[in-house]
Write a structure and sequence with these properties.
By secondary structure, the chain is α+β, with helices and mostly antiparallel strands. The chain has 2 domains: about 5-170, Beta-Lactamase, CATH 3.30.450.80; about 185-240, Arc Repressor Mutant, subunit A (Orthogonal Bundle), CATH 1.10.10. The chain contains 11 helices and 5 strands, in the order ααββααβααββααααα. The protein has helices spanning about 5-15, 20-30, 65-75, 80-85, 95-100, 105-115, 150-170, 185-195, 200-205, 210-225, 230-240, and strands at about 40-45, 55-60, 90-95, 120-125, 135-140. β4 (about 120-125) and β5 form a beta hairpin. It comes from Asticcacaulis benevestitus DSM 16100 = ATCC BAA-896. GO terms for molecular function: DNA binding. This is HTH luxR-type domain-containing protein.
Length: about 240
């Protein structure tokens, strides 16, 4: 199993991957190094993918007993994690759902059952883009305590790039992106974020204010139809707007 890869290292390592099986296995190893050894990757709708590349649980490393119980009880109809992920939500931690949403007692009980089955520290990463796809990755841990958790932005960047590589392998990258182009300065800001530079470091190198960097990112989000930096980086890489 690899150690914790930086986003740049993950991008570089995926350049040689040619099959879905290899990609799935590698991605599971990468996120497991961050403590998330339970993975569920699903694509409900995406006009650029064939029927063979769509489905619920395309990767599913959840406990077998829980998976069977989930299907048998039809939990997808009430699963608050799934319902939130297929909406327009940004990346989220499962624990925040009960605080932010008015769940039924049945849904709350469902969340407790998931924990009892060995799904802790859950994270939901919706995958968005210009084709109005409905897709996402759910990550969880088999142990309750995994030490310091990584930021949602890092997990989102890894998941979004995973989806970019999934596109390449499935032969869907011929779908040309006709959205607004990024300016040279927007590309510079995005590339530096992709390789792990802070806003402060980027501001010094480019000779601009940190508030200006934030303004650039707001415009980038609007142009690419995303809500966070990880997704912006993945979209820009997918459509060749930047290169690392």
């Amino acid at each position: 199993m690899p150690g914790r890869l930086t986003f740049e290292e993950f991008v570089e390592a995926t350049k040689i991957i040619r099959t879905k099986a290899h990609l799935f296995a590698f991605f599971v190893e990468v996120v497991a190094a961050y403590g998330y050894d339970r993975v569920n990757f699903s694509v409900r709708r995406d006009s650029a993918l064939s029927e063979d590349d769509l489905g619920f649980g395309l990767i599913n490393t959840y406990p077998v007993i829980w998976r069977a119980y989930y299907v048998e009880r039809g939990f997808v109809k009430i699963d608050p994690v799934y319902r939130r992920a297929v909406g327009m939500a940004p990346p989220f931690r499962w624990r925040d759902i009960e605080r932010e949403e008015d769940l039924t007692q049945f849904q709350i009980h469902f969340m407790r059952e998931g924990e009892a089955a060995g799904l802790y520290n859950g994270v939901g990463i919706p995958l968005r883009g210009p084709r109005m796809q409905i897709a996402g990755i759910a990550l969880a841990s088999s142990v309750r305590h995994i030490g310091p958790t990584v930021s949602l932005e890092v997990l989102s960047a890894l998941c979004d790039h995973f989806y970019t590589v999934y596109y390449r392998i499935c032969g869907s990258l011929e779908n040309v992106y006709y959205g607004a182009k990024l300016s040279e300065r927007e590309c510079e800001v995005l590339i530096r974020a992709a390789i792990g530079r802070t806003d402060a470091e980027t501001a010094i190198v480019l000779g601009i204010a940190r508030d200006t960097i934030k303004s650039h990112f707001r415009r980038i989000f609007i142009k690419l139809g995303v809500t966070n930096r990880g997704a912006a980086i993945a979209q820009a890489l997918k459509y060749g707007l930047i290169d690392l």
